[in-house]
Design brief:
- The protein is mainly α and 490 residues long.
- 69% of the residues lie in helices and 0% in strands.
- The protein is built from 18 helices and no strands.
Length: 490
C-alpha cells in the first residue's frame, strides 16, 4: 500500500480511530494486524518471509539474553546474523551473484549457470532486516532488555509507518514505546498531520514532477548532450531528496499522530559543506546504523589513520551494495567513500592554503563555495545511482561534457522534456518554496512551532493552500501511473 494511494487515505484514519478506541493493553495487537495488512497489500507471501526474520531474531534475543557464556552469545549472534543476511542475500543479491559468476565462468570457457527459478525482491527487505539486526546487536551489547512479548517485538519490526522505507528504527528507542500509554492529543495529532501534508506536497508536487523530466532524459540518454543531461541529473538529486524525505515525513507524521516518535531522517543535506557532513544530514538512520554496527566494530578511527580510511571505504561500499544489487550502486558508494577520504587527507593542505592567502574560512562566500562543491560531488555520484548500468553511466558522463549548450534555458527546449511550460514552472516555484523552507530550518528557525503560534485564519489559509496545491498541481491521474517511492526497491 502506497502512502500516496487512495487506499491509504482510507486505511490510515481507520487505524488511528480504532487505535484510540481500543483499550491500551490490546492496542499493540491492533497495530500489528494493521501493519501486516499494510505489508500484505503488495504480496501476502512476502509477509511469511518477514515473519521468519522476526522469529529468528526474537528467538536469538531470548538465547543471547539468557546465555552466561560469552562464546555461546557470540555463537547465537553469528547464527542470527548469518540466517538473516543469507535470506537478504538470496532474495536481493542471488541474481547479481549468478550474473557475475557467469561472466567469470564464460570468460574462462566454462558452462554457464541457468537457475530454474526467478527470485522476486520482497519490498522493504533491507529495511526490516536492519530493524531486526539492530535489536540483536543491542541485546548482545546489553543496551536493552530482552523483549519477551513476541507480538510487541513483531510490531517493532513490522510497524507500518517505517516498515518498507524507514527511517530505520532502533530497538532502544522504538520498542519501549509500544508499552507506553498514548492518549489522544489534539495538538500532537495536528502537528503530525501537518508533517504528513508537507510530505505529500514534496512527493506529489515536486518529486513526481521532476521524475517526468529525469525519466525522459535518462531513458533516452544517447539523444541528449551537455546541459540537458546536467540539468536532468540535478533534477534527479532534487527528485530523490523530495521522494525519500517525503516518505520519511509521512512516516514520522503518521507515527506522531498515534503518539510514537521516529527519528529524523534528513536535515537539509544539500546545504552541507563536505561529503562527511552530507552523510550526517542524509538518510541519517542508515548512516548512523552503519556507523554504530559496522564502522565502530571495525575499529572506527581508533586503529590509526590508514585503518580509519579503510573502514570508511568498507562502510560506503557496503552502503552502496545495500542500496541495490548492481555495480553502479557499488561505484556510487565507492565515490562517496573516496570523497570523504580525499577530503580528510587534503584538509591540512586546504587549511594551510587559506591561511597563507588570508581567506576567512567562516566567511559566507567561502561557506557557499564549500556547499556548491559538495552539491556538485553529490550530484555527480547520483549519475551512477540513477543509471541502469555502468555503460549507461559512462555514456551519460561523456555526453554531458561533450557540448556546452546554455541556450537550452532560453530556446524552450526544456518544455519538450515531458512537462508543459505551465507544469514546468509549477515545479520551479514549488522548488523555490522548498529552498526557502530549508534555509529557515538550516538557520534553526522552528517553523512548526512558529506556525502553531499563529492565528487560526493564517493557519487554515496555509493548510488549505497546501491541500489545494497538492490536489491541483500534484502529479497523478490517467496520464501518470501511481508513482512508487524510489526507496521501495531497496
Amino acid at each position: 500500500m502506497l502512502f500516496n494511494s487512495f487506499n491509504f487515505m482510507i486505511f490510515f484514519p481507520i487505524v488511528v480511530l480504532l487505535y484510540f478506541a481500543f483499550p491500551h493493553k490490546v492496542r499493540y495487537l491492533w497495530l500489528l494486524v494493521a501493519s501486516y495488512y499494510f505489508y500484505m497489500s503488495w504480496n501476502p507471501k512476502f509477509a511469511l518471509l518477514m515473519t521468519l526474520s522476526i522469529f529468528i531474531t526474537y528467538c536469538s534475543g531470548l538465547l543471547i539474553g539468557s546465555e552466561k557464556l560469552h562464546w555461546r552469545k557470540n555463537l547465537w549472534v553469528f547464527i542470527c546474523m548469518a540466517s538473516n543476511l543469507s535470506i537478504l542475500f538470496f532474495f536481493k543479491y542471488f541474481d547479481f551473484f549468478i550474473n557475475n559468476l557467469n561472466r567469470i565462468m564464460g570468460a574462462a570457457g566454462f558452462e554457464l549457470i541457468t537457475p530454474s527459478f526467478d527470485v522476486i525482491l520482497p519490498i522493504g527487505i533491507s529495511f526490516y532486516t536492519f530493524h531486526a539486526l539492530s535489536y540483536t546487536m543491542d541485546i548482545y551489547r546489553g543496551e536493552i532488555s530482552v523483549e519477551k512479548n513476541f507480538f510487541k517485538y513483531a510490531l517493532f519490526v513490522a510497524f507500518f509507518p517505517q516498515l518498507v522505507a524507514g527511517p530505520i528504527a532502533r530497538s532502544k528507542f522504538l520498542l519501549i514505546q509500544f508499552s507506553q500509554r498514548h492518549y489522544f492529543d489534539y495538538e500532537r495529532v495536528k502537528a503530525g498531520l501537518l508533517l504528513m501534508l508537507w510530505g505529500f506536497f514534496l512527493k506529489l508536487v515536486i518529486a513526481d514532477r521532476m521524475a517526468v523530466i529525469v525519466n525522459t532524459v535518462y531513458n533516452d540518454y544517447n539523444n541528449y548532450q551537455g546541459l540537458h543531461l546536467a540539468f536532468a541529473t540535478i533534477l534527479f538529486g532534487l527528485q530523490i531528496y523530495c521522494d525519500f524525505a517525503s516518505y520519511s515525513l509521512i512516516a514520522i507524521g503518521s507515527a506522531q499522530v498515534m503518539g510514537f516518535t521516529l527519528m529524523d531522517n534528513f536535515k537539509q543535506p544539500y546545504f552541507s559543506r563536505s561529503i562527511a557532513e552530507f552523510w550526517r544530514r542524509w538518510h541519517i538512520s542508515l548512516s548512523s546504523w552503519f556507523r554504530d554496527y559496522v564502522y565502530i566494530p571495525l575499529g572506527g578511527n581508533r586503529k590509526g589513520t590508514a585503518r580509519k580510511y579503510l573502514n570508511i571505504m568498507i562502510v560506503f561500499i557496503l552502503s552502496g551494495l545495500w542500496h541495490g544489487a548492481n555495480w553502479t550502486f557499488v561505484i556510487w558508494g565507492f565515490l562517496h567513500g573516496s570523497f570523504q577520504v580525499i577530503g580528510q587527507i587534503t584538509k591540512p593542505g586546504k587549511v594551510w592554503i587559506t591561511d597563507k592567502l588570508g581567506i576567512d574560512r567562516e566567511a559566507a562566500s567561502y561557506k557557499l563555495g564549500q556547499i556548491l562543491i559538495t552539491f556538485f560531488l553529490a550530484n555527480f555520484a547520483w549519475i551512477f545511482f540513477r543509471a541502469p548500468n555502468f555503460t549507461a553511466a559512462r555514456s551519460i558522463i561523456e555526453n554531458m561534457f561533450s557540448l556546452w549548450n546554455p541556450w537550452i534555458f532560453t530556446d524552450g527546449s526544456l518544455y519538450l522534456l515531458g512537462l508543459t511550460q505551465k507544469s514546468f514552472w509549477v515545479g520551479i516555484f514549488a522548488t523555490l518554496l522548498l529552498v526557502g523552507v530549508s534555509i529557515l530550518q538550516y538557520k534553526g528557525f522552528r517553523i512548526r512551532q512558529w506556525f502553531a503560534g499563529q492565528g487560526i485564519i493564517f493557519r487554515w489559509t496555509i493548510t488549505l493552500g497546501l491541500i489545494f496545491s497538492i490536489i491541483i498541481f500534484g502529479i497523478y491521474g490517467p496520464d501518470y501511473s501511481q508513482s512508487q517511492f524510489i526507496y521501495f526497491q531497496f
